[in-house]
């Protein structure tokens, strides 16, 4: 018998040994059970929340601030809820009460006559503005030079960027970028030096370089914008291989012969298979030849026609038509 002095309790040695052994066996089975249980699954399950982009909530955040370009249904519902929450309603389009409400024409007249509320006089007038801009550009008259609202430029960007599966490292060439109605969005999205443009109109180039790029804080993106005519791409060098080349409402104003000359020059600058050429509105330069002859000429250049697309505007009742081509051989 083993006598344990604690509180006068007497425990036999065999009982003590059995208790310790039982505890050890229980612990052994417990540890074995834990070590053999399957690892926690990190895969998506049916219980995971999904969004309109087709992924989980976490994936949605990654897409939202990373790869996604176009506006989602969730975004539209959010802004509608904000309008409703604030009790906002469209009012008649008249000048509102304000500090100095003006039309663009009145703004321009004020700039020419009064030079702004606070301004420098005499010699000092030329010492404080790093990049003086003409009044016509400051009141954004060039935003009205298009046949549709300026906001439509974002629609074109979203459609083309997603159709061509662009990344910020892609290189893009626009033929006739004008005042950068579309180009601004590409410049903002792409890495520096990755947006190129050929434009013939000097006034448009002035608006792009003297107003749009500085006012949007995009000078550091260093887009290559070249004044040129007759589809002359020599100033872009021999190096660039483009993921996207597009012409919005340009080819329909050019002689068919010049369009084909341009396509011949551009085909070798387009990435094989993955690169895309998009032409808006119509391709009469092709259809006037007839389907068989057009296909033959395209194939001779290493190009093929992929199809016709339409896309809707986010902000106004409008859709655009685009025709897609790719380079099928190196």
TrEMBL record:
Region (Disordered): 41-61
GO biological process, one term: methylation
Chain intervals with Low complexity compositional bias: 41-58
InterPro entries in UniProt: SAM-dependent_MTases_sf
Sorted UniProt keywords: Methyltransferase, Transferase
Keyword Mitochondrion annotated: no
Gene Ontology molecular function: methyltransferase activity
Protein name: S-adenosyl-L-methionine-dependent methyltransferase superfamily protein
């Amino acid at each position: 018998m083993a006598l344990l002095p604690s509180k006068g309790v007497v425990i036999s040695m065999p009982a003590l040994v059995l208790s310790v052994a039982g505890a050890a066996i229980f612990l052994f089975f417990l540890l074995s059970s834990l070590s053999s249980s399957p690892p926690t699954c990190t895969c998506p399950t049916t219980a995971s929340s999904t969004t309109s982009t087709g992924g989980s909530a976490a994936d949605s955040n990654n897409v939202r601030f990373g790869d996604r370009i176009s506006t989602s249904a969730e975004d539209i519902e959010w802004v509608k809820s904000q309008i409703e929450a604030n009790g906002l309603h469209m009012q008649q389009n008249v000048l509102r009460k304000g500090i100095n409400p003006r039309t663009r024409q009145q703004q321009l007249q004020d700039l020419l006559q009064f030079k702004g509320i606070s301004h420098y006089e005499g010699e000092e007038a030329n010492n404080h503005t790093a990049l003086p801009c003409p009044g016509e550009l400051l009141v954004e008259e060039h935003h009205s030079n298009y046949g549709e609202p300026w906001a439509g430029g974002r629609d074109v960007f979203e459609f083309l960027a997603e159709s061509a599966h662009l990344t910020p490292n892609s290189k893009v060439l626009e033929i006739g970028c004008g005042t950068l109605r579309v180009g601004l969005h590409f410049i903002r999205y792409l890495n520096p030096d990755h947006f190129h443009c050929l434009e013939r109109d000097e006034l448009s180039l002035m608006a792009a370089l003297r107003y749009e790029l500085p006012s949007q804080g995009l000078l550091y993106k260093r887009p290559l914008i070249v004044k040129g005519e007759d589809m002359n791409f020599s100033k872009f060098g021999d190096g660039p291989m483009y993921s996207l080349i597009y012409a919005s409402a340009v080819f329909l104003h050019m002689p068919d012969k010049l369009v084909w000359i341009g396509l011949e020059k551009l085909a070798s600058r387009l990435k094989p298979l993955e690169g895309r050429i998009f032409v808006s509105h119509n391709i009469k330069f092709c259809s006037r030849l007839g389907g068989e002859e057009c296909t033959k000429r395209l194939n001779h250049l290493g190009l093929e026609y992929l199809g016709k697309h339409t896309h809707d505007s986010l902000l106004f009742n409008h859709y655009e038509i685009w025709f897609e081509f790719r380079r099928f051989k190196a």
